[in-house]
Write a structure and sequence with these properties.
Helix content: over 70%
Distance between the termini: 55 Å
GO molecular function: DNA-binding transcription factor activity; transcription cis-regulatory region binding
Number of domains: 2
Largest sheet: none
InterPro entries: DNA-bd_HTH_TetR-type_CS, Homeodomain-like_sf, HTH-type_TetR-like_transc_reg, HTH_TetR, Tet_transcr_reg_TetR-rel_C_sf, TetR_C_Proteobacteria
Radius of gyration: 19 Å
Order of helices and strands: HHHHHHHHHHHH
Pfam families: TetR_C_7, TetR_N
CATH class of the largest domain: Mainly Alpha
Protein name: Transcriptional regulator, TetR family
CATH superfamily of the largest domain: Tetracycline Repressor, domain 2
Strand content: under 5%
Oligomer: single chain
DNA-binding region: 37-56
Length: 208
């Protein structure tokens, strides 16, 4: 049997882990990080506490895993978008920005963000969330921007800084208003308009 087959966890183990993540995500969304208890998470997931601890050593590891799973999916979506080489830079950035902002404004992301505010009282959790979420996303976008710059479509001194600027422009103020409860929902038109303005501003700054 191949070595990777020996090292691969059995399907039932992967399924049980996902079952716990699904249950934990709902509890974190409903109660926040501080008020979410391992007992409630285990009950909602349909597993024993012993099983939960076999997969995650504590509540913080479980919360980071929930956050990381959502970030990984968004990053995979962006990688697929950026893999489609195109000289239509404006359209490519518009598509990437809409994917980013749409994910950030989803009810699940908003709930996890609000829950994470509890976790930020614990510096180690905040650092892990940043390193496994925003930082990886910024690096992925920076790599795509660098490729466009190499083709003469952008003028960049610092691709990572440009990526951070692009993401921040896409956030606009709509994300903050939604996360703070000032806005209850952002429509697809809101997302498109916010990203369109972000892309135009970005290109004015970085296009040759």
């Amino acid at each position: 049997m191949a070595e990777n087959q020996l090292q691969r966890p059995p399907d039932w183990c992967v399924g049980k882990r996902q079952q716990i993540l699904d249950g934990a995500r709902k509890v974190f969304q409903e109660h926040g990080y501080e008020r979410a208890s391992v007992d409630v998470i285990a009950a909602r997931s349909g597993v024993s506490k012993a099983t939960l601890y076999n997969h995650f050593h504590d509540k913080s590891a479980l919360f980071v895993a929930c956050f990381e799973q959502g970030s990984n999916q968004m990053q995979a979506d962006l990688e697929a978008l950026f893999a489609e080489t195109s000289d239509d830079l404006e359209s490519a950035l518009q598509a990437a920005g809409e994917r980013l902002l749409g994910k950030f404004l989803s009810s699940e992301a908003v709930a996890l963000y609000r829950s994470a505010l509890d976790g930020f009282r614990l510096p180690d959790i905040g650092k892990m969330l940043y390193e496994r979420g925003p930082r990886v996303t910024h690096e992925l976008i920076a790599a795509a921007l660098s490729r466009w710059a190499a083709r003469g479509l952008l003028r960049l001194d610092d691709p990572y800084y440009a990526a951070v600027q692009f993401v921040n422009l896409c956030h606009g103020d709509v994300m903050m208003r939604l996360h703070l409860g000032v806005l209850q929902e952002a429509s697809p038109d809101d997302v498109r308009a916010t990203v369109r303005r972000a892309v135009q501003t970005f290109l004015r700054a970085f296009r040759p």
